[in-house]
Every structure is written in C-alpha cells, then in structure tokens.
Amino acid sequence: MLIPMEMFIRNMQELFQPDEVYVMNGSQEETDKLIDVARKSKIDGKEVLIKLNNDEYPNSYYHRSNPNDVARTEHLTFVCTSSREQSGPNNNWMNPEEAKVKMRKLFKNGMKGRVMYVIPFIMGDPESKYAKNCVQVTDSIYVALSMKIMTRVGSQAIKRIGNSSDFFRGIHSIGDLNPDKRFIMHFPHENLVMSLGSGYGGNALLGKKCYALRIASYLGYKEGWLAEHMIIIGVQQQSNNGKVTYFLGAFPSACGKTNLALLESALKGYKIWTLGDDIAWINIGKDGRLYAINPETGFFGVAPGTGVKTNPIMMKTLKNNKFCPTLFTNTAINNADNTPWWEGVSDEIPSDLINWCGQKYNKHSGESAAHPNSRFTVSIYNCPTLSKEYNNPNGVPISGIIFGGRRKDTIPLVYEAKDWNSGVFAASIIGSETTAAASGQIGSVRRDPMAMLPFCGYNMGEYFQHWINIGKKIKRFPKIFMVNWFRKDENGKFMWPGFRDNSRIIKWMIERIENKTGTKESEIGLLPQDNSIDLKGLNITNDIMAKLLKVDKDEWIQEIKMIDEFYAKFENKIPQDLKNRLIELKIKFGI
Ligand code: GTP
Ligand code: SPV
Ligand code: MN
Predict the structure, then answer these.
(1) Which of 2, 46, 446, 555 is most open to solvent, judged by the fewest CB atoms within 10 Å of its CB?
(2) Do 123 and 244 share a structural domain?
(3) What is the pTM of this model?
C-alpha cells in the first residue's frame, strides 16, 4: 500500500511521464548538485544558471527568463470553486471539473525527456502548530532551487506529512512557456494548485502567492485566521528598556514591503528587526492578541531601486551569502566584472552592460537595462537584521497594522483609524497605482483592498466580513494606520524622502500606540498633530508637510466614485457596517 504522498508522486509520474523522478531531501550536497546541473542545462539555448562574481556576490547565480515570462499574469490566474459567487468578482473563475480536465490534457506526457522534481516543504516552522505541509512537483530546476531558498524543503517535511493525506498539492510544469497555454488554477476546496507555462515567481513557486495567500486565505476563512500580503517587523526602542513593538504592513506588489521590512532607521534609538517581507499568517492568541508568523524562509525581492542608499541592509543580505545560493533573475549583467546590475544599485551606468534580454545595453535607448520587475531570491538567514523571534512557533504579538498604497495624490502620508472596523473600512478602500510586478498596464489606479486584490482566494466581500469577525474575537486591538510614501508635488517629484525616513512615521505610530501623542480629526480618520512627526535633519518645510497630510475634498470626491464602483461589483456581499461607513464618508464630503 502506498501512503498518500507516494500515491501523489505515482499519479504525477503517470500524468507527466518524466524520464526521471527526483525527491528533494533539502541537504547542502543536494543544493550543490542541483546548481551544478542547472549550470550545465540550457532552455531555449540559454544556460539556466550562470555563476556570478564570487568575490562581489558570493554563491550567486544569474537566470534569464523567457522575455514573455517576467511577472505574474493575473488574467491567466483562476480560482475554481463550484459556484462563481464563491470565488467572487475579484477572481477569474472556472468550473473545477472543467479546469482539471483542461489542465490534465495540457499536462499529459509533458515531462517526457525531463526530470520531475518532487519538493516536499513546510510553510512555517516545523514546530509551529500554524505551519502547513506541502508537496510541489515541477520540471524546472530553477523553480526547485528557488523553493529551496524560499521554503523549508526536504526530509523534515516528509516526516511531518507521514501517512497523512492532509497536505497541499502543487502541480507545476513550465510546459513550452507558451503564453497561450499558461494557466494558474487554484482549487481551494481541494488544497490543490495546477500551474502551467510559466517559471516566474508568483506563478511557479506554488508555496508563495498560490498556496500561502490564495489557498491559505480560504483556509483562514474556514478556520478563523488570516493569511495576508504583509511584512512583519519588530521595532526596538533604545529608550524604554529596549522594548520591541511588532507591526504588520500590507502594501501592494512593488510598493515597498521589502524595503520597510529591512529598514535601517534614519533615527537614532530605533532598530528595526526583520521577520518577514511578503506574507504573514495571523492567528488570535490565548490572550486575545493577534500573533503573526512568516511562513517563508527567503525574500523574492524587486531589484530596481535597491542600493546602498535606499536599502543598505538588503545589499548586505545579498553579499552575506552563508546559507543558500542567491539567484538574480532578469537583472542586467556588468560584463566588466560579471556582477548583476540594475537601475539604482549604482549612480553610474557601467559602460559594458548586457541587458536583461541578453543584448548589449545602449544607454541612449531610453529603456532600462534590468527588467523593472527583475528580482533576487535570497535566504532570510543571510539578513543581518533577522529577528531572534523569527522562528518563534507562536509568532509575535502585533501592536500595529500599517496599510499603504502607491498614490501620487489623495492619500495623506499617514493617518490612523479610530478603531478596528474603521481600519477594516480604510483598508477595504485602498487604491494603488499598478506596477511591473504584474503584467499589464503600469500606473493606473485600481482598488487593492488590504493589498490582497490579486491574492484573495475567495469572494472579497466575504473576506471583509471575515476581517470584521476576527475583530469580534480580539481582546487587545492593534492600532491600524494608513500610509502613502508616494505622494508627488506639482512637478511630479516625491514629496516624502521615503525609505530610511519612513522610520519617522513608525516612531510616531509607536508614540500613538503608547498614547504619548495626540491626533487631529479629519474626514477620513486621525491625522498627526502639528509638529508631532520627528523631522530633525530633514529639509521638509511646514508647507510641504501640510501638502503631504492634506485631505483634499475634490480628490476625495473622485476617490469615492471609484470606491462606489468597486463596492458595487460585490452587490450584497459587502458587510453592512462598511456600506454605512461609505455613506458616512460621503456625508462628510457633502456628497
Ligand atoms: P513585492 O515583492 O512585489 O510584493 O514588492 P514590495 O512591496 O516588497 O516592494 P519593494 O520594497 O520591493 O519596493 C518596490 C519598489 O518601490 C522599489 O523599486 C523600491 O525602490 C520602491 N520603494 C520602496 N520604498 C519606497 C519609499 O519609501 N519611497 C519611494 N519613493 N520608493 C520606494
Ligand atoms: C508580488 O508580486 O507581490 C511578489 C512577487 O511578491 S510574486 O512572488 O511574483 O508574487
Ligand atoms: Mn508580494
């Protein structure tokens, strides 16, 4: 008799007909061997991995994707539930049986001549009761290695799964990378994902967005917890006996999570400890507080904009390679010294660059040398600011939740919600300019509630209700804040310096949590009192600060139109409490 995991492998073998099946054990020798194989393999005539300058970037490798496969493809991502209503207007839907028949047909015999890698992995610390067991199959060695960096792969997972059939099943093949045969199909009721035709992060590393957000958000809905697109940080105050205050932070893709998670504070006396940069699983502890764990073990971070000035901790992480190889995907390469290069890593553009497509880079082309969504995949254990609580099986207790978006206008630099439900409302109406993290138009404002629009695995109206229900069980509430680092002036320049200086806003939040500073009422929530944000050493005038914090009536009238349209899509599913708050907001603005 085969145990369920063996059964799954056997079924996959029958479906895909690979030449070889390799079950990963997660050892160092295995990683070395896979790197070696990847360096000798070619896809579309290109080496899968190229070794980079070991002195500058130790144990680091370069990968170039197919140019048609460089971002998540939301239009090809489906949530397959028995009724369309369950997946909601926020998801593409397909009937689950139809989807499975379609995928099996496309998968059939698709690994002939290839190796099928079986990746047993755990999302979360093996000791944590919140951790989940998973198995992914893939024919991409790049995906297998990425999973090794991003999750806990190997024997531990096999042991934890044992004879159980309760594990996530992820079925992945890059197929022939044909966008017409690219589908990322989720089956939340069956704990299953089928993904074909893409090797890109969120489409192919199935533990990440597919499982840890879309499937897990549905599990959380059923089981009374939250799976969120959030960072986890601890902020330690030198005064106050070194007290650490833990925050969650949700920002849409490519809107600043990784940068905030690895922040080097601009203010003395505040040290930020990193626990997670993309995904948080949040449970209610026995004491009625929220506790969060990061189910991942690595960063899949945006390269452009990452440099010694903007994110020195990430630059150290990338050069501090002790534990696991680091991968660079679709950056440019500096031919002179075989280092990866991207816009923002140095002020000067090197003269001998190969762009992300593999061609000699022409500075005058007006194009970027690295793809705007080029990324690095690096172990969290390389991070010099990794919190000692990172592996705490219970997670860390949360005192503040920060929600943000990328908006050139309308949204103030920071404001606070009066209570939990006001915070849920404020997060439910977030809008953000689209970025290169997903294929499609860049820079158009869309609603992205809780930064979860592309990642909520069920009807978002019910998701809002779930947030409200969670609030009913909390005994010690975190404060909820909204931020916007991206407001621009008349000349299109960012008014707030951002990055390290975001620590000034965090300081204010801690003062709010500790009741040490007051607020000013506005139509949308509580704004900082005048001069309560520490701007020492910055060249920001009162006038600029007023613009950064302005709640502009005309802009909000436009905003409310978009919120109305978004809420209308969900018809009767938006909780009455949120509808009432929208009405109140309209009244405040005289609509
Ligand atoms: P995903 O990995 O896609 O979920 O993205 P993320 O939310 O982790 O975004 P990340 O921190 O990688 O930042 C994305 C882009 O925004 C990068 O190019 C950063 O340089 C830029 N960015 C981050 N923080 C700030 C900020 O405070 N101000 C400004 N102006 N840009 C920022
Ligand atoms: C995002 O797009 O939010 C990412 C990268 O963090 S991906 O893994 O592709 O989702
Ligand atoms: Mn993300």
Answers:
(1) 2
(2) no
(3) 0.98
Residue type, position 35, single letter? I
Residue 15 belongs to a domain with what CATH number?
3.40.449.10
* Angle of CA points 587, 590, 591, to nearest 5°: 80
Residue 352, exposed/middle/buried by CB under 10 A (0-12, 13-18, 19+)? exposed
Q: Note whether 116 and 22 are within 8 A (CB).
A: yes
Q: Which atom of ligand 1 is nearest to the CA of 231?
A: 8
Same domain assignment for residues 115 and 9: yes
26: Cβ below 6 Å to ligand 2? no
The CATH number linked to 410 is 3.90.228.20
For β-strands 168-173 and 192-196, DSSP reports them as parallel
- Cβ < 6 A, ligand 1 pocket: 251, 253-259, 277-278, 301-302, 304-305, 310, 437, 485-486, 494, 498-499, 502
* Alpha carbons 43 and 28: distance in angstroms, whole number: 25
Is residue 59 in a domain?
Answer: no
What is the arithmetic mean of pLDDT over 386-415?
A: 98
Residues 265-285 pLDDT 10s: 999 999 999 999 999 999 999
- Measure 453 CA to ligand 2 centroid, in angstroms: 13
Q: Check if the beta carbon of residue 375 is closer than 8 Å to that of residue 298.
A: no
Ligand 1 atom nearest residue 499's Cα? 27
